[in-house]
Task: inverse folding
């Protein structure tokens, strides 16, 4: 190996290490903060050697009845359950509406097909504030404010366009001859969709579900404006540790890490489908 090539490899390794540190350090800092006592958290300069404690995690579930934790503990388990209900419901609803829509855009020919597909995608371009104020006014009139159903419907602005466009591309990758063979055997379009297209699109379907769930789980603006304390998800619930008296940094850091666990576990469970789905159609 020539000295020039060695320098290139060393530079590449250093750049990769710097990028890895830049990416991982915020998560490491949150982890350290969640294991510190209040005194260690606010110490100047920051302490990297300390006695770890799980009090911040315990306070998320059972609370703390002493000192600064006695009156400001948010109902974090309820927020966590709210996120599961809202995110899961939004993904299921977007699949129910998005699968037939994506199949129609992928396989059927009709007037203004391209314009309709672009209209669905355009909802992803518009700033959320363009939707949230009209939604807030309408929800107040219809009684949907601070309800699960209202948030699930609002989240369709996040998940439905994404679901339609993702599944449309996956459906288009399936050879048309397979669909025609199923029709010759007597399948209707619904039979082709359920018995042929969806089983062959499982990797793409898994990617769509996981990414849609992550988008819903991480949503902040819509629940901030359209939810109340009874329906706050974890993204909004985490900031409830900030009060006019103090900021519970340790509990907020613990809540952040606990909130990330469902996404991580779900992604690891279907990792092989995600890899296959993201590369589907790359090699003919």
Result:
């Amino acid at each position: 190996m020539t000295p020039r090539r060695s320098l290139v490899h060393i530079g590449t390794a250093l750049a990769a290490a710097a990028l890895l540190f830049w990416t991982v350090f915020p998560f490491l800092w949150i982890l350290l903060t969640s294991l510190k006592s209040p005194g260690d958290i606010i110490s100047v300069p920051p302490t990297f050697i300390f006695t770890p404690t799980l009090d911040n995690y315990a306070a998320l579930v059972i609370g703390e009845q002493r000192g600064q934790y006695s009156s400001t503990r948010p109902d974090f388990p309820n927020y966590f359950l709210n996120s599961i209900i809202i995110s899961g419901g939004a993904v299921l609803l977007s699949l129910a509406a998005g699968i037939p829509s994506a199949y129609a855009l992928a396989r059927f020919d009709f007037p203004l097909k391209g314009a309709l597909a672009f209209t669905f995608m355009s909802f992803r371009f518009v700033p959320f504030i363009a939707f949230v104020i009209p939604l807030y006014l309408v929800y107040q009139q219809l009684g949907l404010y601070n309800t699960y159903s209202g948030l699930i419907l609002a989240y369709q602005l996040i998940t439905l366009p994404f679901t339609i466009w993702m599944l449309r591309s996956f459906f288009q990758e399936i050879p048309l001859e397979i669909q025609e063979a199923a029709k010759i055997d007597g399948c209707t379009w619904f039979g082709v969709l359920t018995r042929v297209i969806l089983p062959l699109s499982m990797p793409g379907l898994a990617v769509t579900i996981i990414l849609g769930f992550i988008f819903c789980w991480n949503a902040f603006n819509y629940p901030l404006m359209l939810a109340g304390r009874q329906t706050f998800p974890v993204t909004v619930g985490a900031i409830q540790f900030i009060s006019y008296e103090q900021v519970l940094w340790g509990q907020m850091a613990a809540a952040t890490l606990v909130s990330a666990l469902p996404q991580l576990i779900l992604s690891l469970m279907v990792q092989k489908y995600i890899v296959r789905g993201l590369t589907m159609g790359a090699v003919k």
